[in-house]
Amino acid sequence: MISGSILVSVGISAGFLLALGLILSALLIIAEKKIMNYGTCCIDINEGERKLEVPGGGTLLSALGENNIFIPSACGGRGTCAYCKVQVTEGAGMVGPVEEPHLDSEERKNQVRLSCQVKVRKDVKIHVPKELLSVRKYKGKLLSKKPLTYDIVELRIELLELQTIDFVAGKYVQLESEEYNGNDRVMRAYSISSPPSDKGHIELIIRKVPSGICTTWIFEHLREGQEVVLSGPYGKFHLSDTDAEIIFIAGGSGMAPIWGMLRDMKEKGKMRKATYFFGALTQKDLFFVDELAKLQEEVPSFKFVPALSNEPAGSDWKGERGLITDVVARYMPDCSKNEGYLCGSPGMINACIKVLTKAGMTEDHIFYDKFA
Question: Helix axis angle, 289-298 relative to 255-268, nearest 10°?
């Protein structure tokens, strides 16, 4: 039998411990809030060219975006695309494990960081390329969504509110998806395929990525007449100011910037000697073949070479067969005086670089746009 005094003692002990636990929890919450409250921080851009007062605690990428400074990012701030690099001279903190694989020794020496991984917890000083300070956000209306193949569409977007966009052929924009089926808004990078002369419109060539949040929205939810949001222009991919003969290599949606470059050269009457090697699996993966064939007829200095790597042997295809790298090697045994412009996956681009350098092209004459 337990005496009353023991019961009282046990009750007091249990109540005391419960109260103590609640007090400690409350103190921890208060301490955590104090730790997380970084107050207002200053982001100094380009040694005082612009100064932003922002709430502390968020990422540098988001803080800049909220103040209409749009740093490119194709992965939604997850640190996988490495597009959002900026030089942070003060206030960045230590390089984290997400950043490490994306920063080489020269970049670390120059204090380059992924802005999506840098937390603004105190005053920060950064350097941003001048061209990024002129990037703008645009509202547009989708005029057409034209299927080019079973998994590639062409979007034509009209810019609203009397907006126009100035860009050099080869640049890209970031298109923002809307929320759907529980997916948040995301922004993805797509090369501009329209010529720079058409300042009131943007054309994009987009391939559907399996399970891709943005491309699924584009293919299954985006409708003609719908308003869209995009920002740009971004990128450093563009034609050099030389007369060197050009070798273009791209397949699928990688045609986008090249199609813009070709149309721009033709419009300006500055069509350099060029060969475009378009790699595809089968005939159902080809598009704009008639348009490029017509350009070849109109411009004697241009040659279009489509090649199929997986076309059935008994088909009616009369063109080149095999991997596009092998076709390039056959057509261009000496590339020492050429320039190369490549667009596509990292694997495709790396393979093409090997072929071109083996044929005598120096790496400083090879320009590319790698898809993230």
Answer: 30
